[in-house]
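In this supplementary section we document a worked example of the pipeline. Step one takes a protein sequence of length 47 as its only input; no multiple sequence alignment statistics are reported here. Step two produces a three-dimensional model, which step three serialises into structure tokens for compact storage. The input and output of this example are shown verbatim.
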Amino acid sequence: MVYGQDSVDNARAQLRSGSDRLRGRFSKLGALLDEARHDVLAFLTFP
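The serialised model returned by step three reads:
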């Protein structure tokens, strides 16, 4: 789970892993997650 990670690096790795797994069966969904990576991880920059 991306939102439960304790560091930016771990969250990025988790998101990458999830999008890679989805890409196997749902290529468009994997690509969508890749494109939205910045938005999905934006919460990590909040104080």
